[in-house]
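Hi R.,

Here are the chain sequences for the assembly we discussed:
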Amino acid sequence: MHLLSLTQGPLAQFLRVVDLIHEALCSETPITKRDMYYKDVALFGSQSTVNTLVDDIAATMDVSRSDLYVRASAKGLFCGSSLVMHLHSGDVVRGNDSKGALIPPSEDVKRFDVDERLAWVLVVEKEAVFQTLCHLDFSRHASLPGPGLLITGKGYPDVATRQLVASLGQNLHHRHNATHGSCYYLLIRPLLYRIPILAVVDADPYGIDILSVYKFGSSSMSHQDNLDTPRIRWAGVMASELTGLGVSKENLIPITTHDEKKALFMLKRSYIPRKWRKEIQHMLYNRRKAEIEVLSAAQNTMDLPQDKAVRNMHECLLVRYLASKIASAICSCAAKAAK
Amino acid sequence: MASAELRAIAFVSLILLHTQSLAFLHAIDGAEAHTDSVWSVLWTPQDAVFSASADGTVKQWTPTSGQISRSQPPHTLGIVSMSSADAKGGKVLWNTLEGLTCLWDLEDGEIKGRWESYVRGKEDNEEPAWSVSLHPSGETFAATGGSGNITIRSADPASFGARKSTLPSGRTKFGLCCKHSPDGTRVAMSSEAGQIYIFDLAAEKLLNTYTSHAMAVRSFTWSPDSQLLISASEDKRLIMHDVRYNASGSAGKPGSGAVATLTGHTSWALCADVSADGKYVLSGSSDKTMRVWDLGSRTSVSTIQDTGEVWSVAWRPKPAQHGSAGEFVSGGEDGVVRWWRSAGAG
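And here is the predicted structure of the full complex:
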């Protein structure tokens, strides 16, 4: 065997990862995958090499990544004063209504406190949209029936973000929510009901794939199955509703060959819900996709339902669109609980 | 009033009545709706109507009653293209979103051919098929797709899908639509970039390239006499192209290309069909309307409102009775196959 391939090939990479894990375990100091990669960039070549090796090792040994003392570096953000996270270290991460806070890895979190008035959770694919909503104080916006939580994974979510959303999905279904302000709300009987967890992603194959990671889990980490949020719902954006919102077809973006291949691949997955399949097919037939930002480019004509909760809005279409989706999700959650 | 003035008024009134818009009435809806958009409809000379949908099914309808007479069980993916030929008892060809092409023999109702265009052969490096078209003889079919060329393939069940020839367009822009001319001499293809290519089948030669559109040409239609080609584009327009051609290459002026633009739709023009008598063009659009255009005056003479995007339209091929502008079938976003007929004299 060539000496070079021994020192630089897959075997060397594997041994280096095992070595770093062993070091972390012996010194009881967790290491992030990013740290591992930077220890020997020349050897690994790319971050994904490290990621794959760590996942493979964890799967082979039938342990979680955190059992190997490999923790994720914080990537995801959350915004909303309704959530306070207490860490093992004694630190407290308090949510803020106008600024995002980093989501710490779940192994660092001792407990989290959720304000009982929390009415909704919105997961947003892209950081740019998340920041826009933070600046608008969206988590406490007057047009919404109650305070909420914004979360973003900045694209494909890391373990910490998925863990937070999954925990919210499991723990937030027996909340008593007192009536709050507007007369629309007084009509809802204050019974126990589930708080909706909604996702807003781009109307393209990658957006829908990100949504499926939150809802069904990631195919590369299927052995760590407490990270899925089956009750998360796709609130938007759907290309099929855009003309009703005054967005003309000229604002839609042509799909790329990558989009085509990704879309066809997703259509082959049996667990993809029918509604998602319809949208993906339509995207392929029109050969167009849409980003969430298209709502900012649209005119102000639209036929959103005239709920009292959204009636007095003067904000942009994006905010009105999201508020309308949240309000109707809260309504349907309440209706289900009332049965 | 003086009698001269009365005559003038009567004369003007007669002219106005003559140029009055056509009216079309909603005749009947299909008994059952597809569960997703209808992307393709056909009306054959045997008076059968076929619809193909995003829900993966192909249905055969009786136009007078709106009842389904035959149906194909659903594919896992939607049907993006459908074509028919009357030869040999009648055949219907369709292609799914991933590129599975099937041939339905109408005589015995069996599927006689299946071609997985997404399986790459050694010598065949074409992208999966998107749009397919049966030759009027039923012996071959044309396919186009991501590679931007037309391939002519066998429609014989024994060798279904086998490539017989390739007609290159010279570009690699996605081929959205291909259709044979009714006289069987030529096949045309339209691309995502807006070009329309016409090939002579016998000589396997590119005859013409039309660049009348700068945006995608979603679909086009040949006139029954194979002399006109009407394109429907995302630029919201339909363009009439004079494509007269003498296959033997002898006397007669060749067609002059784009001769008229039909404007009026406020969003993408999605489909077009020419009536049997060659007088009218019917178009469907994502502005949720259908329009009927008079080919002589090149103006819109009727606008019909639908509930959603109109993906496909087809005239009844039988020439209309005197005094009637004819009947047609439409399919679109709501999954319902709808029949329409002329309200009276045009």
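The two ends of chain B are 31 Å apart (CA to CA). Residues 59 and 71 of chain B are 4 Å apart (CA to CA).

Let me know if anything looks off.

Best,
T.
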